[in-house]
Design a protein that fits this description.
The protein is α/β, with parallel strands linked by helices and about 190 residues long. It is about 35% helix and about 25% strand. The longest helix is centred in the first third of the chain and has 12 residues, at about 40-55. The two termini are about 25 Å apart.
């Protein structure tokens, strides 16, 4: 984990310090059909690719059924591991009776990070009205950020593109890199 300085232009226009931390991610696909081998895990595969392209280390990619207790226990176990600082789930965020990912996540997080879920719903609503029925939540457990994404490969790509710019900073903050710069307020 380290910091890097990034120039914002000509001398006098300011220099800011960008907080960075290595992202060490776990991808959890939540799908009864995928867990039984009845369907290929295209969403999880897409998420692994997207994370890898941004330089994240993939610690693990796994598939679970929609059962709430095993899912919440898996989230807690991964969050407690020192080598994991980001868990992204895909699937189980809709209105179907077995869509339990938000409930499993809420059982383990200590603090919510609602801005991430709000931003994803707000921006993806511009592409599909189905965003209104996504119930994904985001939050922190044991210093690990947990993010729920919908289950379709298209929704994974669209949602990930929205949160991607803030993931390195979020992980750095959770790692204790909290120094702020004079220019930070103008960047928001």
């Amino acid at each position: 984990m380290g910091e890097k300085a990034e120039s914002l232009g000509a001398i006098g226009e300011g220099v800011r310090t960008v907080m960075t931390a290595s992202i060490r991610a776990v991808v959890v696909t939540v799908s009864d059909a995928c867990s039984r081998g009845e369907r290929r895990d295209e969403s999880g595969e897409s998420l692994v690719q997207l994370l890898s392209e941004m330089g994240a280390e993939i610690v693990c990619a796994t598939i679970l059924s929609d059962d709430i207790e095993p899912l919440s226990e898996t989230l807690r176990q991964f969050a407690d591991r020192d080598e994991v600082n980001l868990i992204i789930t895909t699937g189980g965020t809709g209105l179907a009776p077995r869509d339990n990912t938000p409930e499993a996540t809420l059982k383990v997080i200590e603090r919510e990070a609602p801005g991430l879920a709000e931003a994803m719903r707000m921006e993806t609503l511009k592409h599909t009205p189905m965003a209104m029925i996504s119930r994904g939540v985001c939050g922190i457990c044991s210093g690990t950020l947990i993010v729920n994404l919908p289950g379709s490969p298209k929704a994974v790509r669209e949602s990930f593109a929205i949160i991607k710019p803030v993931l390195p900073h979020a992980v750095a903050l959770l790692a204790g890199q909290t120094r702020h710069t004079a220019n930070e307020d103008s960047e928001r």
